[in-house]
Specification:
The structure is a homoheptamer.
Chain A: E1 2-5, E2 9-14, H1 17-22, E3 25-26, E4 37-43, E5 47-49, E6 52-54, E7 63-66, E8 72-76, E9 79-85, E10 89-94
Antiparallel strand pairs in A: 2-4, 2-9, 4-7, 5-6, 7-10, 8-9
Amino acid sequence: MKIRPIGDRILIKFKEREEVTKSGIVLPDTVKEKPQIAEVIEVGPGGIVDGEKVEMVVKKGDKVIVSKYAGTEIKIDGEEYTIIRQDDVLAIIED
Amino acid sequence: MKIRPIGDRILIKFKEREEVTKSGIVLPDTVKEKPQIAEVIEVGPGGIVDGEKVEMVVKKGDKVIVSKYAGTEIKIDGEEYTIIRQDDVLAIIED
Amino acid sequence: MKIRPIGDRILIKFKEREEVTKSGIVLPDTVKEKPQIAEVIEVGPGGIVDGEKVEMVVKKGDKVIVSKYAGTEIKIDGEEYTIIRQDDVLAIIED
Amino acid sequence: MKIRPIGDRILIKFKEREEVTKSGIVLPDTVKEKPQIAEVIEVGPGGIVDGEKVEMVVKKGDKVIVSKYAGTEIKIDGEEYTIIRQDDVLAIIED
Amino acid sequence: MKIRPIGDRILIKFKEREEVTKSGIVLPDTVKEKPQIAEVIEVGPGGIVDGEKVEMVVKKGDKVIVSKYAGTEIKIDGEEYTIIRQDDVLAIIED
Amino acid sequence: MKIRPIGDRILIKFKEREEVTKSGIVLPDTVKEKPQIAEVIEVGPGGIVDGEKVEMVVKKGDKVIVSKYAGTEIKIDGEEYTIIRQDDVLAIIED
Amino acid sequence: MKIRPIGDRILIKFKEREEVTKSGIVLPDTVKEKPQIAEVIEVGPGGIVDGEKVEMVVKKGDKVIVSKYAGTEIKIDGEEYTIIRQDDVLAIIED
């Protein structure tokens, strides 16, 4: 089974707090309850979104910082995922 | 009798919770009361919507994840359906 | 006497609840007080509306599902009508 | 003395309730206090309004149904008039 | 000393209530406290305003009906003036 | 040290009330607490702002009337300045 | 490890209050709790943002005045950073 995001949407999986800490990035106290770092699992094709051409710059496997609590959560085969728009991605983390 | 959605609208039928669980996708507790997975029954022609060209990417028979509680519910011959805009579709589920 | 809607507006007449039920479509309880199915009586010419070209896709005589309680009601020769924008039409019902 | 509306604005004069009733159109109770049918007295030239080209479709002398309580009232030589935008006109009444 | 309005702005001087009455136009009671008729003193050059080309249609010396209480008041050499956008002008009064 | 405003922003210095009065312009009582007349100290390059081409019409040294209390205040070497957008300038005062 | 901002976003580091004061710029009391002067650490590529072409004018190492409390804070290797959009930068400080 595969989730194919539509338009500029991407499917991400938030990283556990321990993993985040290990990678050297710690999120401030105010966001302690929900990690803001995620791995990109699937990427939509982009194209015309709201009448504007959107080019996808994130790729499968990227580690990203996500801006907001927004997004729709789904559970697939027991794992939690979130679908967000690419514009909710603030930055890509390169190792 | 047939429902022909206008513009970028689509007619969907939400899947029963049991069917959703069987397919390996479970929705989080917060949305327990209303399943977010639906089957596409009819698709509008797209075209110019709000002055922007909208191309339809969902097709009849697609299984889709729907973003919001929005949409207009109607009952046809005893069955419940919902009319939403294509932009309310987050992703297509492929088996 | 004739009502000629301007731009993308259409003149509709809501169908009585009994007629709606007979046609096999029943609206959910939450909208019991006002039927959402209407017949199209007159259609505006479309053209440039809010700076965007609008093409009319509904026709005189169409049976339509209407999205909202919006619209302006008027009474002509004792009959109640409503003027809405075409974008308030969700779908056309074909027999 | 003459009032020359600017852009897509028009000068209208609301019809007395008696005149409205005589013409076969009765407005619902909720708008009893202010008639919604008016005669067009002067029409602006249209042109670029809010960056969009607006073509005037109402003409001097048209009887029109007006959508809202909006508009600016003025009294000229003892008579009450209202200035509205053309987009506040819902339909033209033809005899 | 001269005030040069920027873009689509104009400098106006509201007319005293007595002058307004003399000219045959009386404003309704609800606006009794502030006359809505003004003389145009200076006119901005128009040009690109908010990304849209605005052509100035009011001229120095025009008598205008102004739509709103908006605008910024200033006092120059003891006289009160107001700066508004051209779009706040509803109509030009011709004698 | 120099402040270089970005885009359509300008750095201004509000004039003391005494200077304003001397120049023949008095602001109404409602704005007594903060003078609305300012001198332009630095001007941004304009260019594409919010996707629209903005041409700068105010110049260093201009005396301007400013529309709002908005803007960001900063203190440089003990002097107070404000950064506003050019669109917050209503008019230029010429002597 | 490197943070690569997306689109028109930039990664900044706010300067300590002491550094700000030393440089001759003092922020007013109302913003005492959070300095508004920052150093630019990383700059996104710009490109199409919200359907508009954005050209980046700030560069790595620039000292900038930032307009708002907005932005997302992250901690990298024990240091606090903030991700903002370029439009939140009011001006560049040149020494």
